[in-house]
Write a structure and sequence with these properties.
With 211 residues, this protein is α/β, with parallel strands linked by helices. It has one domain (5-205): Rossmann fold (3-Layer(aba) Sandwich). The chain is built from seven helices and nine strands, in the order H-H-H-E-H-E-H-E-E-H-E-E-E-H-E-E. The strands form two sheets. The chain has a seven-stranded mixed β-sheet with strand order 3-2-1-4-5-9-8, sandwiched between helices. Strands 6-7 form a two-stranded antiparallel sheet. Strand 1, helix 4 (63-70) and strand 2 form a beta-alpha-beta unit. The longest helix has 17 residues, at 5-21. The protein is globular. The chain starts with a helix and ends in a 6-residue tail after the last strand. It binds S-adenosylmethionine. Residues 12, 15-16, 19, 30, 58-60, 63, 79-81, 84, 100-102, 117-119, 122 line the site of S-adenosylmethionine.
């Protein structure tokens, strides 16, 4: 069923107020999460010594912006929660864009990579193709998009947060329709049986420039 503008606005407003209201608890609950596997998968396609322009899409309080900065990259965060934006700015000193996923205003061909850790699933299915097109346009040719999302089927409210859940095959359809090439995927946490791995991480590439 088609979602109207009012409903999409409500999805963003309610989800973002949840994050705003629970920002400190979120920080304490996630600042020590071990996402090294995701960092490595995201950075693997790049030459080891290349310093990268990275957009952390849905950066939250800035844990991953700080990590990419510590490696000498040039990360820029983006989040729709003004509380998280302020936390990420003071934690990292980096540029943090206060933008909502459904009304992005990104520069074109500006980033080598986009790291979307636990964020893209907040985009309703109806809007996902448009948002993926905008992310693709923000990447340089050959640029990398990393996404990690809770997997499942369908979409709707989980408490005050709206989520859209995909499995590998349905994720691939969205990615390939947007013109990305799927390079890698894995389930998390690593080393568990599949039914105990609620997270699906995928690495995709924007086509390189024609020679
Ligand atoms: C589960 S948190 C993940 C945060 C961070 N990437 C991490 O791994 O800890 C989802 C993030 O997406 C942001 N977010 C959710 N919906 C959004 C929207 N419509 N526009 C912009 N940001 C949004 C939230 O504010 C939050 O920071």
């Amino acid at each position: 069923m088609e979602q109207k503008t009012d409903e999409l606005t409500q999805i963003e407003t309610v989800t973002l107020s949840h994050y705003n209201q629970n920002a400190e608890a979120f920080w304490h609950g996630t600042k020590d999460h071990d996402v090294v596997q995701n960092y490595e998968a995201f950075l693997a396609p790049f030459p080891k010594d290349q310093k990268l322009d990275i957009l952390d899409f849905g950066c939250g309080p800035g844990r991953d912006v700080k990590y990419f900065q510590s490696l000498g990259h040039r990360p820029v965060g983006l989040d729709g929660s003004d509380v998280f934006c302020n936390m990420a700015r003071s934690y990292t000193g980096c540029e943090i864009l206060h933008q909502k996923f459904l009304s992005l205003a990104l520069p074109q061909h500006a980033y080598d990579g986009i790291f979307a850790n636990a964020s893209l699933f907040h985009v309703p299915s109806q809007e996902l193709p448009r948002v993926l097109d905008e992310l693709q346009a923000a990447l340089r040719p050959g640029g990398i998009l990393f996404l990690s999302n809770p997997r499942g089927e369908g979409e709707g409210w989980s408490g005050q947060r709206y989520g859209h859940y995909l499995q590998l095959d349905s994720s691939k359809v969205f990615m390939e329709n947007a013109g990305f090439k799927v390079l890698d995927h894995y389930y998390r946490p690593t080393g568990k049986p599949i039914h105990e791995q609620p997270w699906l991480a995928i690495v995709v590439m924007k086509p390189p420039a024609r020679q």
